[in-house]
Specification:
Layout lengths: L8 E7 L3 E8 L2 E9 L5 E2 L2 E2 L2 H11 L11 E4 L1
Parallel strand pairs: 1-6
Antiparallel strand pairs: 1-2, 2-3, 4-5
Length: about 80
């Protein structure tokens, strides 16, 4: 895997077993962040077990005005 810098605005999504954190960043500066409850059983042992539940969570979160228009995403599980 090559190392590259992502410049400009980006979303950082950390999907965990109990909660999901979504942060809008510009460079290394946090612009806005919010924590959501991950649906029970959706994530287990580092794998997405219920794709539909995760999809609905992210769809709802992306309606936040602070997250609109950002096209670069860093996603961790």
């Amino acid at each position: 895997m090559s190392k590259c810098k992502i410049t400009g605005k980006k979303l950082v999504i950390q999907l965990g077993r109990t909660d999901t954190q979504i942060v809008a960043m510009n460079g290394s500066t946090i612009l806005y962040g919010k924590t959501y409850e991950t649906p029970v059983g959706a994530v287990e042992d580092g794998m997405i077990r219920n794709q539909e539940a995760v999809r609905e969570l992210l769809k709802g979160a992306m309606k936040e005005p602070e997250f609109k228009g950002i096209r670069q995403v860093v996603f961790t599980l």
